[in-house]
Automatic annotation (TrEMBL):
<dbReference type="GO" id="GO:0071916">
    <property type="term" value="F:dipeptide transmembrane transporter activity"/>
</dbReference>
<comment type="subunit">
    <text>Interacts (via extracellular domain region) with trypsin.</text>
</comment>
<dbReference type="InterPro" id="IPR018456">
    <property type="entry name" value="PTR2_symporter_CS"/>
</dbReference>
<dbReference type="GO" id="GO:0005427">
    <property type="term" value="F:proton-dependent oligopeptide secondary active transmembrane transporter activity"/>
</dbReference>
<keyword id="KW-1133">Transmembrane helix</keyword>
<dbReference type="InterPro" id="IPR000109">
    <property type="entry name" value="POT_fam"/>
</dbReference>
<keyword id="KW-0812">Transmembrane</keyword>
<feature type="region of interest" description="Disordered">
    <location>
        <begin position="687"/>
        <end position="707"/>
    </location>
</feature>
<dbReference type="GO" id="GO:0140206">
    <property type="term" value="P:dipeptide import across plasma membrane"/>
</dbReference>
<keyword id="KW-0813">Transport</keyword>
<dbReference type="InterPro" id="IPR036259">
    <property type="entry name" value="MFS_trans_sf"/>
</dbReference>
<dbReference type="GO" id="GO:0005903">
    <property type="term" value="C:brush border"/>
</dbReference>
<dbReference type="GO" id="GO:0015031">
    <property type="term" value="P:protein transport"/>
</dbReference>
<dbReference type="GO" id="GO:0015333">
    <property type="term" value="F:peptide:proton symporter activity"/>
</dbReference>
<dbReference type="InterPro" id="IPR004768">
    <property type="entry name" value="Oligopep_transport"/>
</dbReference>
<dbReference type="GO" id="GO:0016324">
    <property type="term" value="C:apical plasma membrane"/>
</dbReference>
<keyword id="KW-0571">Peptide transport</keyword>
Amino acid sequence: MGMFLRQSCFGYPVSIFFIVINEFCERFSYYGMRAILILYFQSFLRWNDNLSTAIYHTFVALCYLTPILGALIADSWLGKFKTIVSLSIVYTIGQAVIAVSSINDLMDFNHDGDPDNISVHVALSMVGLALIALGTGGIKPCVSAFGGDQFEKGQEKQRNRFFSIFYLAINAGSLLSTIITPMLRVQECGIHSKKACYPLAFGVPAALMAVSLIVFVIGSGMYKKVQPQGNVMAKVARCVGFAIKNRIRHRSKKFPKREHWLDWANEKYDEQLISQIKMVTRVMFLYIPLPMFWALFDQQGSRWTLQATTMNGKIGIIEIQPDQMQTVNAILIVILVPIMDAVVYPLIAKCGFNFTSLKKMTVGMFLASMAFVAAAIVQVEIEKTLPVFPKGNEVQIKVLNIGNDSMNISFPGTTVTLDQMSQTSEFMTFSADKLTSINISSTGSPLTPVTDFEQGHRHTLLVWAPNNYQVVKDGLNQKPENGKNGIRFVNALAESFNVTMNEEINETVTSHNASEYHFFSSGRMSFTINSSEIAQHCGNEFKTPYLEFGSAYTYVITRKGDGCLEPTVFRDISPNTVSMALQIPQYFLLTCGEVVFSVTGLEFSYSQAPSNMKSVLQAGWLLTVAIGNFIVLIVAGAGSFSEQWAEYVLFAALLLVVSVIFAIMARFYTYVSPAEIEAQFDTDEKKKYPEQSNPYPKLDSALQTQL
C-alpha cells in the first residue's frame, strides 16, 4: 500500500487521475441526460409545459438534497470509497432504466408507432430518475472529498490545484454532453417505427456512467482510504444538544462564563470532539449567506434563456438558438479556470495582496451581482424594441383590407382610409368601455357597425366589402416563444384552400378567414396551397423570405388577373433586433464570479473540515445550491414585476447586500488547520489536561495565504 501511495506524477498522487476521469464521465452522464429530459417529458410522455417544468425542477432539487444522505453513509458507515462504488451502481441502473423507459417499441404491440400503455413508460422513467437522484447526489460530496484525501500534509498547493482541475472536469463533461446528446436525440431509430432516438440519447450517458464506475474501481489499489469513524452525526447532535441543555441549566450569574457555548459540553464529551464541532459550526455559519449566490447563478437556465428568446441569434456568420447560449458558461469556465490558476492568482500574490479563500468568495459574489446589473441594462435595451401589447381592459385593433375597393373605418376619435390590400401601420389601442362602435363604409354605401372584441387581446379586423367583415383574435399577447416566428394565412378567395408548410401546418382555411399562427425556427420556409379552382398553368409552391427571430407575419392569399394565386405578406410583429452577443458580458461576469466563488468554496469546505466530517461539510456546501433554487421559485412567484429589468436589479441588489454581510462575517473568521489540531490532541492524549488553553494554534501567515 505504501508503495502505491508514493507513486506520483507531476507531484500529484496518480490516484487523482482516476478520480478526475470518473468525475468527467459522471458529469457527462448527468448533464447529457438532463439536457434532453424536459423534451422527453413533453414529446414522449406527452406532458404539458407546467407539469414537465415542475417535475424537472423537483428532480434537480432532489439531486442537491440527497448529498446529505451520501455524506452520512460515507462519513459514518461505509467510508467514501465503498459509498462511491455502491451508489454509482445504483446510478448506472437508474440511467439504464430511463433509457429502457424511452424505447418506443417496448409497449407498442400493434406497431403503430405509439406506445399502447404510456403509464408503464412513466413509471419506469420515474423509478429511473429517483435512482439517478440518489446516485448522483449521494456520490457528489464524496468524490471531491475523496480526492482531497489523496494528498499528504504539505501538498496544500497541489490540493488547491486539484479542486480547480476537478471543477474543470465537471464543466468539460457538461459542455461536451450538452452539445452531443441533443445531436443523438434527433437521430431516428426504432424496430417497427422510426422515431426521435431517445434510447440512444439516454443510452450513451448510461454507458459513460458504467465507464466512470469501472475507471474508479480500477484505481482501487492506489487510493488512500480513510476509515469511517462510527456514526459521527449522531455524536455531534448529542454533543450539541448536551451543550445547549447544560448552558440553559447553568444560566445564573454564579456559574463562570465559558469561552464558547460548545465548551458547556466538556463535562461529558472529550475536547477533541468539541473542537471538531467548533470547526464545523463556524464554517456552517459562514454558509448562511451563500444560497443567494446560487439563486442568481441558476437563473441562466431560466430567466436568461427567456431573455435570449427576445434577441436576435445571428452573431456574424453563425446563428445560435436561445437555449444554446447556456453553453457560453461552460466554454468560459474551461478557458477561465486555468487562466485564474496560472496567471491571475500568482499575479495577485506577487503584488503582496493576501487573497484568502473568503476574500475570493466575496469577490465572486460581487461579480455575480454585477452580471445581473449587466442583464438589466440589456433588458432595458430590449424593451425599447418590444411591441406594446394590450393590458387589462385594453383592446388592440389592426385593420386589414382584403377587398378590391378602398374602405373608410371610423373608430372613436379617428377615421382610417385603407386602399385595397393594405393594412393600418400599427395596432391601435382602445380601452374596451370606450369602444362603443366601429363603422365601416365605402363611397356611397351605408355604415356597418362592428362589435365583439375581447379585452386584453390583439385583433385583426378583416374587411372586404362595406358590410362584410371578420374579427380575428390574434392570440399573440407576447413575442413568439423561443425566438420562433409566427405565420398565419388569410384567405381572400371566394372558396376554401388547403395550406401545407414544413409538415407542421396542414390546415384548411375557409373563404375570408384566417388560420391560427404556426411557429417556425429561423430560415426560409416553403409552403404549398391547394384549391379546387387554381388554373392548370399556375404553380402552387411559394417560399417565405428569410425568417429571423421572434417575428410574426400574415400571408394574404389573393387571385391575380391570370387566375393564379399570389401571397402578399404583412408584418404583425417585427423581428428581434438586439443581438444575443450582448449577453456575453453578463455571462462573462457571472462565470468569473463562479470560478472565484465555487472552486474556492469547494476547497475551503474541504480544508477547514475535521477529517471525520469532510463529506458532511461538502454536503452542506451543496445544500446551499438547493436552497438557492428554492429562493428563485419564491422570488419569481411572489414578486410579480411588470418590468423584467426591475427583477434583475432586485436580485443584483439582494446579492450585493449579502456579499457585504458575508465580507463582514469573513473578517471575523480565523482559518484553522484541522490536521494540526488533531495531531495536537493526539500528543496531548497522554496527559489528562492539555496544557494548551487555546485549542486553535494560530496559523502561520504562509499557510493562511494558501487557503
